[in-house]
Specification:
alpha/beta; globular; GMP Synthetase, Chain A, domain 3; Rossmann fold
Length: about 1100
């Protein structure tokens, strides 16, 4: 599982639980995580209602969540609005609660059995915008609300579940169809460490209930133990979501893939037995009093408890005799009791998950810190009794609306005073004896908006101002940003505001988030500025250029989205979690053999590769070369290598011996994998590079003289015990070393970290199940991205070992109903010209993504006409950064789209100065996680990454006023004719439109032996049967270009253009071919 021990720091007299990274990103919102989970397995059951016998699938739950969210938003419920839920566990309460979490409205769950005084106390404290209740407590809630609402103020609406009365608002009315369910997008709520999710009630055992504030990230931490559940649970307790145990049980289904059993009824032994025997609950919770009543019931002797794995008991002291009886009952079928202690404020503190020790609660839970202090606050050591102070990894947010209680509850070091008396023994087991907004941070500095507003409002031309904190491009801190309303006629500019503010404030208060001029500030009816609306407005504006005339912030941003998976975790931990949660989902289909692989099968293969490779000596930091086509076991192997902490270097299966040797010499892999048809090339390359033998494993080979990769899939007998290790810092540990494209020189090794890989998985969750396909092996970034997409969402990846052919593509869309396909334009061009294309059924294909080289609008027009239910998309990506741009929003002729999620782009001139809208320059890119550079190539790394952390893409382009990027050419492709810059892609775009041209590549050949200048030259592949001549081409081009762009190097007709395996034209090979033809003078030229 993990190093489940309490660690004692004797010098500081502090105890620490095991450090465990959550699988999901604490920066994500619960709504993001829930939607990712619900979309992944729509047919799986998430909830069973024992009272009605009805089951609810993930798809049904998601639909109800969306409708609640949309209808609540329509009646004015928004982020920050509190909603009270005084409900028992009826079937629609959980979808409602999750809808509130999704739209950012914190809910306050109240005990459905509260009396009027308790109900009024919490309603007064939280002042909810809406209240939900049940038919049987409606009158109590109504009277309590009337008590707390001041005279003249409106009583908040009350919505009642499962009620037949005609004089109330029915909660089910908020489940009406909206007609917009399919377009719903989970809103971004801001910093999850600051965004309130729920206001739980403190236990109230020592006074009136208080409202315990938990953020979205704190709620994610509550579920940390669920990541170790190897099988989905069927959980049951009588707790309503008012109780922490009820609330965490509701969340658990999203983190462990389990089923939650619910009932509206209070505790009764008959229903407890029903949960175990009829519904086969395997994880149950009861307080000791319920457990005693169950064990004393006459029916006990005949009840089948064989399904129960864990019976957790807590909430009050648990007698050892009670545990003895439970353990004796469950032991014959492998179950046992658990003792747990926690609080609403900090979550789980201790649990004896591994070992039971008489009189003890157990060792500390993950990420928990504990101190024991005396009455004077002095820290105590092992075995010394005192007050228990606890601290979770997420700081306790205090009590809602009760600053005094918040101050009293937290000490100077941020520890929560539990009021419990206890000690920790020498083994680290806890023993309990008795009981005893507007301000934000920039890099840990507190920033007061009112201080900045006081300065800005005095500037001539400012009528109104609001300062807020907006997330920076990396999501690591909040940047001060100002929204300003100018006075009529004022010509105030952003640069002036910044200069004035910079002169009067400390560095951390500078307006790094931008200065934005708007028509009006959003306000309430009483004139109070709605800061959350301002923050949302600025976040949207920050997706595009700041239009800063001083040139200080000329930057374009993609939509900022917090990845749902934790970038501090390792890839193996994330993959294992995803595969465990959806075991029956088909993740891969082998088109060549028509074989399907489930997530469970994929995980088993991955685990066996991990365990057998580890036995073979593979360790963290090692490198594995993979020269493989897309055969059935290649993806499980790649995932296994990353899980171990080694990095895989995918090589093109078609590499010649020279290219293969180049990469082997660079990466020095510990072992190599290849296929049967390239084993000789790989073996020769290995012998030419290494003095000693390196093991070569061959996939799908019948040879007797090789190591068979399939031998590493043998059973180990340890599969069931497998838990992926945490292998180090994900921001430094390499997951893979990709090859740069190599179109203009030998490939370089692109270092990709675990954090980058996790960001790629978590930033693009696919909302709907999709079947995805491309021809790329893992050697190409598009091949890796397609593999990772099956973890990003509920998609199935089609694989084939075959190289591109039109018939294989038609098979993917007709037989296997591919929904998403990526291909280079050269493949697409062949498809639209195929004789059978008009008869192919393209109805399944929703997204045809094109990229890798220039994509003509004419080609897109022809493809779009073929797709009745989809369209083409122009995309740009790099091995260094990943997916960079796409025209998802709308298609604009000549554009490659807008920056994708969490991508930041700048355009700079030759001197590195930032350029603005419409200005052409070098394209610099930054992803959500930093690119480390090229493997063992410091010089290339230095020349590629600038001082601000941006990667030089090598492209030349510009942004238009709508934030759409246009790429003009590659820096290395552009050449000069007599001092004039010539863009090959511009000429190619013209020639490609000429009738009879199938493909074209423009290169530069030397004008003479001294290379005094370079001549534009075209290599053309004609359409079959075409009689197109060189003179015709030249005349058409001459009529459309300036003199210096004329094809003075000539026009060459060739049978084919040399390409990479994914269809990218190899310009250096084209140039070699043209130069060979030039020597034979088989060309029409003029100078």
């Amino acid at each position: 599982m993990f190093n489940y021990r309490t660690v004692y720091d004797a010098a500081n007299r502090t105890w620490y639980g095991a450090t465990v990274q959550p699988v999901y990103n604490p920066e994500a919102s619960l709504g993001q995580i829930m939607f990712e989970t619900l979309a992944r397995t729509p047919d799986r059951v998430i909830q069973r209602d024992m009272d009605t016998g009805r089951s609810m699938t993930y798809a049904e739950f998601q639909t109800k969540l969306i409708r609640f969210a949309q209808n609540l938003t329509a009646i004015g419920v928004g982020k920050g609005d509190v909603v009270a839920l005084a409900n028992a566990n009826s079937e629609n309460v959980a979808p409602l609660a999750c809808a509130l979490l999704t739209i950012g409205a914190p809910f306050n769950p109240l005990a459905p059995g509260f009396n009027e005084d308790d109900m009024a106390n919490m309603l007064h404290a939280t002042n909810p915008k809406l209240v939900f209740c049940d038919a049987d407590n409606y009158e109590v809630v109504r009277k309590a609300l009337q008590r707390v609402v001041a005279d003249g103020e409106q009583v908040p609406p009350i919505y009642v579940f499962e009620c037949s009365r005609s004089d109330v608002n029915h909660a089910e009315d908020l489940l009406k169809e909206t007609g917009q369910e399919q377009t719903f997008i989970v809103p971004y709520l801001g910093d999850s460490h600051k965004t309130l999710a729920v206001i739980l009630c403190s236990s109230g055992t020592s006074g009136a209930h208080k409202g315990v504030q938990l953020t979205h990230s704190a709620c994610i931490q509550l579920t940390i133990l669920y990541r170790f559940a190897l099988t989905p649970s069927v959980s049951f307790s009588f707790s309503a979501i008012y109780w922490t145990t009820g609330f965490t049980a509701m969340l658990s289904a999203f983190f462990n893939g389990g089923i939650r059993l619910i009932t509206r009824k209070p505790f009764n032994e008959a229903q407890f037995f029903e949960a175990i025997e009829k519904y086969r609950a395997n994880m149950i919770f009861t307080p000791p009093s319920y457990a005693n009543a169950v064990l004393a019931h006459p029916q006990m002797k005949t009840v089948d408890f064989s399904s129960v794995q864990f019976w957790a008991v807590g909430g009050s002291p648990v007698p050892e005799r009670l545990r003895d009886r439970i353990d004796a009952l469950l032991a014959p079928t492998g179950g046992r009791s658990l003792n747990a202690f926690g609080s609403s404020e900090v979550g789980n503190v201790a649990i004896d998950l591994i070992k039971r020790k008489p009189g003890a609660i157990g060792p500390l839970g993950p990420n928990v810190t504990v101190r024991i202090v005396d009455e004077d606050g002095k820290r105590l050591g092992v075995g010394e009794e005192g007050e228990l102070l606890t601290k979770a990894i997420e700081a306790f947010g205090g009590y809602y609306g009760n600053e005094q209680a918040s101050r009293d509850a937290i000490d100077a070091d941020g520890f929560f005073r539990t009021g419990d008396i206890g000690y920790i023994d020498e083994e680290g087991f806890l023993h309990l004896i008795d009981r005893k907004k507007d301000i934000f941070k920039y890099r840990n500095f507190h920033v007061s908006p009112s201080d900045l507003e006081a300065i800005i409002v005095r500037i001539d031309g400012v009528r109104d101002v609001c300062v807020v904190g907006v997330p920076d491009a990396e999501g690591g801190t909040d940047l001060p940003a100002a929204a300003i309303v100018r006075r009529p006629g004022a010509v105030l500019e952003a640069s002036q505001v910044r200069e004035i503010v910079d002169e009067q404030v400390s560095d951390f208060k500078r307006l790094r988030g931008g200065v934005h001029f708007i028509e009006e500030l959003p306000k309430t009816d009483s004139g109070k500025v709605l800061r959350r609306k301002v923050t949302e407005m600025i976040a949207r504006m920050n997706q595009f250029s700041q239009a800063d005339t001083a040139g200080k912030s000329r930057t374009w941003y993609g939509i900022r989205m917090v990845p749902i998976y934790n970038p501090k975790a390792n890839v193996g931990e994330i993959l294992n979690h995803i595969l465990l949660r959806t075991p029956e989902r088909i993740i891969q289909i082998d088109m060549d053999k028509d074989e399907r692989m489930s997530c469970a099968d994929f995980r088993t293969r991955m685990i066996r590769f991990v365990q057998n490779l580890t036995d073979a000596g593979l360790r963290k930091g090692d490198i594995v070369a993979m020269a493989n086509a897309n055969s059935v076991n290649v993806a499980p192997l790649a995932c296994a290598v990353m899980t171990i902490g080694a990095a895989f270097n995918p090589l093109a299966p078609g590499f010649n011996e020279e290219d293969m040797a180049h990469m082997l010499r660079l990466t020095e892999p510990k072992m190599i994998f290849c296929d049967d048809d390239n084993v000789n090339v790989v073996s020769n390359a290995v012998r030419s590079v290494f003095d000693t033998d390196r093991p070569i494993y061959v996939f799908e080979s019948s040879r007797s003289n090789v190591k068979h990769a399939e031998d590493l899939l043998k059973e180990t007998g340890r599969e069931e015990q497998f838990v992926p290790p945490h292998v180090g810092d994900s921001h430094e540990l390499l997951s893979m070393i990709l090859c740069s494209s190599g179109t203009t020189g030998p490939p370089k090794g692109v270092c990709v970290t675990h954090a980058q890989t996790i960001a790629a998985i978590g930033s693009f969750p696919l909302a709907k199940p999709m079947t995805v396909f491309n021809f790329s092996p893992l050697y190409w970034g598009t091949g890796v991205f397609m593999m990772l997409s099956t973890f990003s969402g509920p998609s199935t990846r089609l694989i084939t070992r075959r190289p591109f052919s039109e018939e294989a593509f038609f098979e993917a869309v007709e037989k296997y109903r591919a929904n998403f396909v990526f291909m280079p334009p050269s493949y697409a061009s062949q498809i639209v010209r195929h004789e059978r294309v008009a008869q192919v059924d393209f109805s399944s294909l929703r997204m045809l993504s094109l990229g890798g080289s220039y994509v003509s609008d004419g080609l897109r027009d022809r493809l779009d006409r073929l797709l009745p239910n989809g369209r083409t998309y122009n995309s740009v990506g790099t091995s260094e950064i990943g997916w960079v741009t796409s025209d998802f929003g709308k298609r604009k002729p000549g554009s490659v789209g807008t920056p994708t999620v969490n991508i930041t782009i700048k355009i700079v001139d030759d001197a590195g100065n930032d350029l603005g809208v419409g200005e052409k320059g070098h394209v610099l890119i930054k992803g959500p996680e930093p690119f480390l550079g090229y493997y063992k190539n410091e010089e290339a790394t230095r020349t590629t990454i600038d001082e601000r952390g941006f990667t030089r893409s090598g492209d030349v382009g510009y942004f238009d006023e709508e934030g759409y990027l246009y790429l003009i050419d590659r820096e290395k492709d552009i050449f000069k004719y007599r001092g004039f810059h010539v863009s090959p892609s511009e000429l190619e775009a013209i020639i490609a439109q000429i009738e009879g041209v199938l493909e074209v590549c423009v290169v530069a050949i030397p004008a003479d032996a001294d290379r005094t200048t370079e001549l534009p030259t075209a290599a053309i592949v004609r359409v079959a049967g075409s009689s197109l001549g060189a003179k015709q081409v030249m005349e058409i081009v001459d009529g459309k270009v300036s003199d210096f762009k004329r094809l003075r190097g000539g026009v060459y007709f060739v049978d084919h253009l040399p390409k990479t395996q994914t269809g990218k034209i190899l310009r250096r090979k084209v140039l070699e071919k043209v130069l060979q033809l030039a020597e034979k003078n088989t060309v029409t030229t003029y100078v």
